[in-house]
Amino acid sequence: MSFRTHINQQPADAEPRPGQCLRTYLREQGWYGVKKGCDAGDCGACTVHVDGEPVHSCLYPAFRAEGRSVTTVEGLARPDGELHPVQRKFLDAQGFQCGFCTTGFLMTTAALEAERGTAHDDGKLDDLPRAFKGNICRCTGYRAIEDAVRGLRHTERPCAGQAVGRSLGAPAGPQVVTGTARYTFDVDVPGLLHMKLLRSPHPHARIVSIDTADALRVPGVHAVLTHEDAPATLYSSARHEHPTEDPDDTRVLDDVVRHVGQRVAAVVADSEQAAEEGCRRVRVAYEELPYVTDPEAAMRPGAPALHADKGPDARIARAGNNVAGEVHGEIGRVADGFAEAAVVYEETYRTQRVQHASLETHGSVAYFEPKEDGTGERLTVRSSTQAPFLTRRALCALYGLPEDEVRVVAGRVGGGFGGKQEMLTEDIVVLAALKLRRPVKLEFTRAEQFHGATTRHPFTIGIKLGARADGTLTAVQMRVVANTGAYGNHGPAVMFHSVGESFAVYRAPHKKVDAYSVYTNCVPAGAFRGYGLGQVTFAVESAMDELARRLGMDPLVLREKNIISAGEPMVSPIGEEEDLHIASYGLDQCLGVVRRALAEDTSSEEVPDGWLTGQGAAMAMIATGPPGGHYADARVSLLEDGTYEVAVGTAEFGNGTTTVHQQITAGALNTTEDRIRIRQSDTDVVRHDTGAFGSAGTVVAGKAVLLAATSLAERLKTLAGRRTGVARHLCALGAEAFDCDGRVVTLKELYEAARAGGAAEELAADGHWGGSPRSVAFNAQWFRVAVDPGTGEIRILRSVHAADAGKVMNPMQCRGQVEGGVAQALGATLFEDVRLNGRGEVTTAAFRRYRLPQYADVPRTEVHFMETSDAIGPLGAKSMSESPFNPVAPALANALRDATGLRFTELPVTRDRLWLALDRRDRAGEAGGRAW
Fold it and tell me: What's the pLDDT at 111?
């Protein structure tokens, strides 16, 4: 068979394999702009044009491209490099965050633009919900994408010394819109082997034997790895600065499986197809064991103990009772507080499992590179990780390797949301690479993301509030049970964090908490945006709203009466965090935004007859960084050409830290951001960085960058004074030169003089920040909704979010973080649900069965930033990547309560659940009450 096609106007004649899809064919030809998000036609990240028509290349057979012209995102621009108009629009509006989905939106938009005014124009560009029904974005909340399509410009042009506070574009923007940004697997590694994992079909079993003989006979299979090949060392897949925060309960490959989907064996082969066939031929004999999927049942006497074989060194609170971690505390006496109360409200709230659903799945590749000194090789791991330094530390501990023998690097990461604060692939690919001395790649499928990665922790929160008749809180009590699944990665820490700020934001003389993180034979939970606060905030803010109703008070007035104020201590029954301070206070402003939105709102005027309308609000507080220290090192250097380089360890996955670090440096050095190059997320770059999690990119790594850049500015001023013979205080640093009382010395000249004079060390400066002390950020969300009682349909008429972010470093980016957080939280509130059957097996392991927010689902949120400046954060900034998520669910639940009279206590509030609750209420003839 003779195969010939054209790809981006270039001839290609490599014959596709039988059954190969166009996506993998294109990537094998080096067109890495074509992304894998689902391999099922659900997400659109793989969209290309075939003879001008947009197709999902993951579904399009490669052989059908014969004789056709294929265009990928790399082929949109003109041969001279001039961007396609759609690429320019997305760049000007910054219609992306992580950028992994951007190819799909660009290619879809470009195809529809080409149809404008032709016989094929069906008006889709005027109906974007229809146009983008085949495209998913997890990061942006879609507003930035809409603005890009409409041709709105949000990016500002650089101005020397005035970078901070401006909406400057992302440094990688041109690469994102042209498909040349390099994500984890967008590299060619010669001699690459492919790994596939055999996973457990049982929720709990002991492996009796594994027969690998047939698998090893498959042509192309190089190795089959089992628990007999893996180290016996116990560790946690969670990545924290202090590993003792998590129980050591995991092995690379274990002889006991504790959930359906746990890895049992790894097959390494020349191709993914051979590795998959090898997995099918591995024969495993299991001894099935009793299992438990309900956390309350798991804590009862006689329940199957998942980790009873672990000793005290594993740091499991009560292994015999399946309690991974627990916390108990009381301030005052809640019994006395409830006795004093005029009104007591008590209820149980439940939140579900939610998948991170980052478009780039988990994956890594391990290979060997020559050492710089020529003395041998060292191991390099390229990974989609939020924590390259902590991953290197864990790999070295696991395999007994010195840290200078291992390099971990992250390319651009296609979304994280906490899910990539784990080591889920790196450990097993390194095991294979060390054994075979060959490069090895493991890339999760979308199904593996659901049953082989992690989810948000499901919570059950029993809450009891007491208040006097005037609304003064007398007591707050909670019992919290978090289902951590089969392993305790992040379990105790999420549980602990969930009952910190959620308690501390309200004053009450009596507070009590009992909280448990519990093992079950379910897919493990892990870190997720909000880190437990979103779950408990749903309960607290719903309960406050209900308490206000029973007191006959305005819920906003009840909150304002009981919230902590600036200068007050943050009191929680889990104990005081001494390094946590209210270093700036914008909560009163946040509630003021909500009050004004409510007073001015006219959104319900066009609601169809018979629909129910209501409004609701909620608020939240979050620490601007993890407790116990979160460390970052940075180095800023003057380069030979008079530009600068910033070296920082934190990863970029759409969080915008790269732009902020560039802006901070530009401000400190009085230059423009286009004269600053960033090197990042590579363990070779700086000494250490804890990682891009806990909202630390600006307030920790950014602080280190600021210290380094400020120090370098002072060093260069000294060099300039020395070079010109002018007092240093008379030397003013400009974008490209110093003006020393009228004498100009360029930065290039300064570089050359310092090198020649033996002062090269003065051309760079280091900064370090340890993440302490910490401040707090505040958020408030308000919705007005309409509900069709005949169908259960919910329409969000208006969405308003107030964010206390301190000094906003980049308004465009910060707005995008808020919008994305609100959109993700709406998904978790209205339809996202990782469902399990009775055996703990995930039954929603594809996007078409797991409902993600699409363009048509997400309202435009009005984002308001408060006028505050933080005394701790760099240049007055606070974190704002996790916190917008937290008040969304209770705000919507409160709006639904106002509209329907029903209190929804369990998430998600799906359309069918809402309709059933209304129908049940109407049949019973009740005026209101609990939905279920």
Answer: 96
Tokens coding 239: 């990545």
* Interatomic CA distance for residues 537 and 530, integer angstroms: 10
Beta strands at 776-787 and 612-623: parallel, antiparallel or unpaired? antiparallel
Distance between CA 564 and CA 554 in Å, rounded?
18
First to last CA, the chain: 63
- In the three-class reduction of DSSP (H, G, I as helix; E, B as strand; rest coil), residue 83 is classed as coil
The torsion angles phi and psi of 439, rounded to 5 degrees, stand at -65, 140
Residue 896: per-residue pLDDT: 98
Residue with tokens 């989810």: 455
CB-based contact 23:46 (threshold 8 Å): yes
> Which of 875, 874, 826 is closest to 854 using CA atoms?
826
- For residue 788 the two structure tokens come to 């069709």
Residues with Cβ within 8 Å of 159's Cβ and at least 6 positions away in sequence, in order, are 166, 672
> Please, which residues have CB within 8 angstroms of residue 385's CB and are 6 or more apart in sequence?
239, 364, 391, 408, 410, 413, 420, 423, 426, 651
Cα(844)–Cα(308) distance, rounded to whole angstroms? 30
Dist. CA 232–CA 253, nearest whole Å: 9
Give the pairing of strands 283-288 and 510-519.
Answer: unpaired
Q: How far apart are CA 580 and CA 584, in angstroms?
A: 12
Q: Whole-model pTM? A: 0.97
| Beta-bridge partner residues of 765 | 636
- pLDDT tens per residue, range 434-484: 999 999 999 999 999 999 999 999 999 999 999 999 999 999 999 999 999
Q: Tokens in use for 710?
A: 């400020």
SS3 794: strand
Hey, what amino acid is at 433? A
Cα–Cα dist 754/723, whole Å: 9
Distance CA 244, CA 315 (A): 8
The closest alpha carbon to 31, from 82, 80, 65, belongs to: 65
Structure tokens at 374: 């020529």
Low-confidence stretches of the chain (pLDDT beneath 70):
1, 926-932
pLDDT score recorded for residue 695: 86
Query: Cβ(267)–Cβ(442) under 8 Å?
Result: no
Question: Tokens for 709?
Answer: 């850049």
Q: Which residues contact 498 (CB under 8 A, 6 or more apart)?
A: 459, 480, 482, 515, 531, 532, 533, 535, 536
- For residue 581, which of 874, 870, 876, 881 has the smallest C-alpha distance? 870
Using alpha carbons, select from 622, 629, 669, 678 the residue that is nearest to residue 650: 678
Q: What angle do CA 680, 683, 688 make, to 5 degrees?
A: 90
The rounded distance, in Å, linking the Cα atoms of 3 and 5 is 7
Q: How far is CA 896 from the centre of its chain?
A: 28
Cis before 773 (ω within 30): yes
Query: Of all helices (H) and strands (E), which one includes residue 426?
Result: helix 426-436
Residue with tokens 């010669």: 190
Cα–Cα nearest to 668, from 874, 931, 877:
874
Write down the pLDDT at residue 477.
98
The DSSP 8-state label assigned to residue 414 in this structure reads: S
Q: Angle at the Cα of 656 (from 86 to 409), degrees rounded to 5?
A: 105
Both tokens of 57, joined, read 């290349």
Q: Edge-to-edge strands of the sheet including 510-519?
A: 323-331, 510-519, 473-485, 459-467, 343-351
Residue in 188, 197, 205, 113 with CA at minimum distance from that of residue 150: 113
Q: How many CA atoms lie within 13 A of 143 on its CB side?
A: 20
State the Cα–Cα distance between residues 334 and 476, nearest whole angstrom.
Answer: 7
| DSSP symbol at 364 | E
Give CA–CA dist 85/107, Å, rounded. Answer: 12
3-state SS, residue 691: coil
Beta strands 5-7; 69-71: pairing state: parallel
Side by side, which strands form the sheet with 256-257?
A: 256-257, 205-211, 283-288
